[in-house]
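name: query_chain
kind: protein
chains: 1
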Amino acid sequence: MLDTGDRFTALSALALLVPAASIGSLAALSVTGSWGQPLSALCQVWLLVFPIAWSVLVDRQKLHLSLPKRRELLAGAIWGIFMFAVIVGIYSLFGQHWIDPVAAKQKAQQLGINSHNIYLIIEAYFVLINSLIEEFTWRWFVCNKCQILIPGKPAIFLSSLLFTLHHILVIAAYSDWRAVILGSFAVWGAGIIWSQCYLTYRSLWPSYISHAIADLALAIIAWQILFN
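structure:
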């Protein structure tokens, strides 16, 4: 049975980690001047390094990487294809009417996305690398800490809510309030699925694969908005 000290330690870890995601998003999207992008990059590094350092130095855990099993690959592919279809469907029905392409192009240019090659490099990072970092941070670390605070299904909902917070800022930068509401619920729902996948298989492979496929759908849609 967990004591108050375990819960306080878990809460401390979350308090030191979770705000960095929103700070980084605000820095990348809203801050002008020479320190916005460096601050955003620093927050991204923190989101990866802090869980590792905390797990090794505070929790005294040994980190290891396991090869994916066939059922994990299959689960990831199935959920990924499902999310791909949902994302494309939602955009076709609602998103293309709620997102202002002119405003989106202006925001992208402000962030330095002004050519096809730069966009492809950035999206390759988000699809292949950032999705893995997010799964490591939000599922392996945050979801486990939430399980200490409130075990069971409530922990899945809480960890997914924390995962959604910084995405709200990103969605709001490119679309109106309707897309913010719908997109936030979509991200929260995806977080629930990925957390359940992690807890079911005790592996990041299913959630990582499906996350990468979902991000690929978003990358394709963003390409159409920015370059068509």
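note: Residues 117 and 123 are 10 Å apart (CA to CA).
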